[in-house]
Amino acid sequence: MTTNTTHITTARLDFAKSAPKVFRALIGFDAAAREGLDPALVELIQIRASHLNHCAYCLHMHTGDARKAGESEDRLHMVAVWREARHFFTAREQAALALTEAVTLVADGGVPDEVYAQAAAHFDEQELAHVLALILTINTWNRVALSTGKAAGTDERRR
Fold first, then answer.
1. Closest by alpha carbon to 14, among 158, 145, 135?
2. What burial class does residue 104 get, using C-beta atoms within 10 Å of its C-beta: 0-12 exposed, 13-18 middle, 19+ buried?
3. CB–CB of 8/149 below 8 Å?
4. What pLDDT does residue 21 have?
5. In the chain, what is the straight-line distance between the N-terminal and C-terminal CA atoms, in Å?
6. How far apart are CA 102 and CA 52, in angstroms?
7. What is the pLDDT of residues 105-154, one digit of tens each?
8. What angle do CA 123, 140, 32 make, to 5 degrees?
9. SS3 call for 147
C-alpha cells in the first residue's frame, strides 16, 4: 500500500469561491443522492470511500456526522475492516460497503458482477441508483478535498 507523504505547504484555491456554480451543483447532486437513504448508511458509505481515498478531511467530517447521528464508536472503528467484523453490520450495509469499495477502486478491476448482484439483492432499483450516486459524490468530494489541500478538522459547515 502506498501512502501520501506529501505535505501541503502552499495555499491552494478555495474551490467553493473559485467555482461557485460547480460547487453548488455538487451540493445539489449530493443532496439528491441522499434522498430516501438511511442516514446511518449514508455515513458508512462516505466513511469507507474516504478511508480508501486517504481523505482525512472527509473522514473527520463524516465520522463526526455519524457520531452526531448516534452511530456507535464500535461500528465507526470497524468500518475500515468490515469484512473481518461483519457482525457489526447488516447484510444490506455489507452489500453497500462492498459496492463502495468496488466503485471507489474501479480502476483495480471494475465492479464485479457478484458485488453488483449482492447490492441489487438488498436495494430496489431506485435505492441502488441513490447508493451509486452517493458513492460517486463522496469520491468527487474526496478528490476536491485532496486536490485543494483541505485539512482534517477544518469543516467550513461548522462556521
1. 145
2. buried
3. yes
4. 97
5. 35
6. 10
7. 999 999 999 999 999 999 999 999 999 999 999 999 999 999 998 878 67
8. 50
9. helix
Among 83, 50, 77, 81, residue whose Cα is nearest residue 152 = 50
φ, ψ at 36 (rounded to 5°): 85, -5
pLDDT band at 15 (very low <50, low <70, confident <90, very high): very high
Residue by residue, DSSP assigns 44-66 as HHHHHHHHHTT-HHHHHHHHHHH
Helix residue spans in the chain (DSSP H): 15-18, 20-34, 39-52, 56-68, 73-78, 91-104, 113-122, 125-147
Pairwise CA distance, residues 130 & 11, whole Å: 35
Phi, then psi, of 86 in degrees rounded to 5: -55, -30
pLDDT at 26 over 60: yes
